[in-house]
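Intended use. Records like the one below are meant for learning the mapping from a protein sequence to its folded structure. Do not use them to infer anything beyond what is encoded.
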Amino acid sequence: MIKEGLLPVHQAGLRRNCLSFIEVVAQSVANIAPSATPALIIPAVFSITGQGVWFTYAFSTVALLFVTYHINQFAKRSASPGALYTFVAQGMGPAWGVISGWSLVIAYLITGAATLCGAANYVGVLATAITGAAPSIALIIVVMCAVTLGCWVLAYRDIELSTKFMLLLEAFSVSVVLLLAFAFFAKTGHVYDKAQFSLSGTTPKAMLQGLVLAFFSFVGFESATALGHEAKDPLRTIPRSVLVTVIAVGAFFTFMCYTLVDAFQGHTPGLGQSNAPLSVLSQLAGMPLLGTLFAVGASVGFFACALACINAGARVIYAMAKHGLVHDSAAGTHEVHATPHVAVTISAIVLLLPPLALLLVNHMALLDAFGYLGSVATFGFLFAYILVSIGSPLFLRSRGELSAVSVIMAVLSIAMLVIATVGSIYPVPAAPLNTVPYVFLLLLAIGLARFAYVRLVRPDIIGAIQADLVQEVHDLSA
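Structure written out for the chain above:
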């Protein structure tokens, strides 16, 4: 039963002002899982774009800098655990905010589900290196369950501990990747690759199709906005962290694209057919031990990403539950740990179910499941990014702060995001990826059905959410 007014306060609320700038950055970086991109995604993008893969990532970085501009129009004026759910609601009204919120929940939790596949894949690589045998389905399931359990414990107990742990894991995995890249260039001395700079053999159509996977590499870069109540000085810390994350990770991805394509020139099998490209890079760099070390780094990197997805997804669920859009219990915080423990538990369970279903029911290969779930998640992020890009100039206009620059940035951002979205559905991809848009729409429809029920039971819910959002902006801007 939905109660009158916004839902009652549960316990003491989230822990306030506990996360430093670097810990907030750790949330966004871990949600991206930078080490996953050279390990699994760059080869897939290369198989589509060829020599233009670095340009595809550079384009994606610029596109997401435009999105960052719009996110930060909200983030430097208000802060909330609702992330883009709250921002879109402030710009376009509560109904669109709810649509954005459900889209984000889908995106965060399905991204986390995909990372379980990635973690299991690289634990399998390690197991094969040690035993010489392919990993069993039992091992894969145990790894997924263990990763989910570990993430749940950390997210349940302490957000500060979670972010510090994610920071250490990502610093380790990214350092190994960069060490491999620099070792390769030092050994070979082959720095200039004419084929890449000339975009040899690359077509605009191929780069358009590759954009979708390239965007998947970045998704979650905005998840620091979900720490609005827990970050120190959030109106400065969060905007800076989102901007720094996009620039740093974009540069890293573009550099690793160039490195891997250069390293695999003339190599058989090619980059597009390799399921462990950094192990090959370690051989070419004359440091095979680093290949094994990277498998460890990739595994812990995927763990950090799953943890970040639970942290971010749980806080959006928590914010929506306070507005009656999710079960009342999810609006509660732990009396001791001050974490949204019920929302964290819900997120962890949802994280685990999709990969298990794809593996055990659909008998999908591990990396195919990773790609499928990642594609579904990307739709959720792209939709939320489009909405925040539309909502930003509307929000500024409502405050009397709209400028020509804001409008131009909105047009550019939306155009780039629409290009990526269209590229994901046309030409129609082969099965099972052709079902991805419908799966996303079905998941979104489930959330919107809940919203429709709440509006039926409580016709005043829109006004109550709007008043709460206005009060939140006023309190934080004062």
